[in-house]
Amino acid sequence: MQYKTELFIGGEWVAPRQRGHIEVTNPATEMPIARVAAATAEDLDLAVKAARSALPDWKAFTGAQRAVYLRRMARAVEARKDRLVHLQTLNNGKTLAESEYDIDEVSNCLDYYADLAEKLDHKQGSPVELPVSEYVSQTHFEAVGVVGLIVPWNYPLLTSTWKLAPALAAGCTAILKPSEITPLIELEYGDIAREAELPEGVLNILPGTGADLGGPMTHHPDIDKLSFTGSTATGIKVMQAAAQSIKGVSLELGGKSPILVFDDADITDAVDWICSGIFLNTGQMCSATSRLLVQEGIYPQLLERLKEAVGQIKVGDPFAPDVTMGPLTCRPQYEKVLAAIENGRHCGARLLTGGSAGNAEMKGFFVEPTVFTDVPLDSDLWQEEIFGPVLAVRSFSTEAEAVELANDSPYGLVATIVTNDETRIERLTSALEAGHIFINGPQALFVQTSWGGVKKSGIGRELGPWGLEDFLEIKHTTRFLK
Ligand code: NAD
User: Fold this and answer.
1) Cα–Cα separations (whole angstroms), residue 301 to 266, 271, 281, 294, 370
2) Residue 231 near ligand 1, beta carbon < 6 Å
3) Contact, 149 vs 204, CB < 8 A?
4) Is 77 helix (H, G, I), strand (E, B) or coil?
5) How far apart are CA 401 and CA 162, in angstroms?
């Protein structure tokens, strides 16, 4: 398979000015896959110039005109689905089933924002109700401008699309910076853009490191807005840098989300949702429900069933159809997760299952699905995001205690509630500090619903109409009627 390895600027594949490269690795084998160009500040200047010169025409199109391109991109994604699934599993390590889900959601998201771009035309110039009759005020929506989209490696193509589709729908032009760990996947968007005949410069893709490219993006005077997904530590740097030029920022950051299971819950269902909430994508989910709170009455039975279910998870080659959990995506993450497990062994918690590097027969960044119970509240295991397949469990006695434990975190991305008591669901929905609450089910994400967190989990909301608003400025006209 041939990979795209250059920079995509102004509709062309070009070599980086400084000729630097990033080695891209297969996390299941630790073998190199490709050498990808590493962009630096000089390449960024060229990409920003291309995006700036494409902006006036792209912004002047109607939403309906932009929708045509978004739909063409969706069809181009569908047409190369097998290739994208393969590439994502190869570079990221997620199973084929997980990659397939992501790629389907990518085309779905492009189509959804094509629809919203069309609807935007009908909202332009809508009147505002005023308390006086001698004035008329109208609302206009305009693209924010040139936007910098910075993403991590855990859902590469999907996270990029959650930003790119609304940005293009709004009339912005973009510089997309994939993670240096998984750049092969987003580079495919260059060919997709060409096939969709997207005007040159509307989308520019620069792989590169955080230090040599991400940092310069946050300081660049001609980038109007940054949409960032990644760790809270980097999010703080992005926000600080953006403050210098009062750039808009939206931040989708880390989490240490709770799942609360009450005595009246169906244990079989609860165990299913607990497992998918922490072991999908090898636990590399910002929304992983990595803190499990179980009411005392069912604690022993639930732990027994959970241990059995975790024992069924098959770790291994993500291309194998019977494998349900692939490797972690990169060595630093692998080492971080193993260190967190090692700390967990010494913090006073009890290891219920797992706890070792995975699959002994293979090289690769494999880790066993791991569960610690009776985890001390002040331990890193309970407090810190691990971003791997490691679950921390505690019991609680009352609803009030459960809420206090759940909210005792600097993060607030999601929470899951498992109970059949409707009034309790109502109380918890308002009491839990999170951007999205899943009730009696898995983490079902729909492009129509919002995504984002409170507290240190971020600022702003992606997806739904809120995702589009994030890339729009509001302009009002107010006219005096003589
Ligand atoms: P990271 O913060 O290390 O990197 C994210 C991106 O930022 C990468 O492209 C990186 O190159 C770039 N970057 C690094 N330093 C930069 C700087 N100084 N300025 C600008 N850009 C810089 O995160 P990661 O390790 O790639 O991803 C894991 C983290 O992402 C986890 O904390 C996870 O919770 C979070 N995440 C959040 C969401 C969400 O929607 N809330 C989704 C996925 C991942």
Assistant:
1) 11, 11, 26, 11, 18
2) yes
3) no
4) helix
5) 36
Amino acid at 258: P
Which of 111, 120, 113, 119 lies closest to 71 in space, CA to CA? 111
3-class DSSP state of 350: strand
196-218 confidence digits (pLDDT tens): 999 999 999 999 999 999 999 99
| Tens-digit pLDDT profile for residues 240-294 | 999 999 999 999 999 999 999 999 999 999 999 999 999 999 999 999 999 999 9
180 in contact with ligand 1, CB cutoff 6 A:
yes
**Taking Cα atoms as reference points, which of 216, 182, 190 lies closest to residue 48?**
216
The one-letter amino acid at 225: K
Distance linking the first and last C-alpha atoms of the chain: 69
Rounded Cα gap, residues 117 and 467, in angstroms: 12
The phi and psi torsions of 164 (rounded to 5 degrees) equal -65, -45
Ligand 1: which atom is nearest the Cα of residue 231? 32
CA–CA separation, 208 and 179 (whole Å) = 7
Q: What is the DSSP pairing of strand 135-143 with strand 472-480?
A: antiparallel
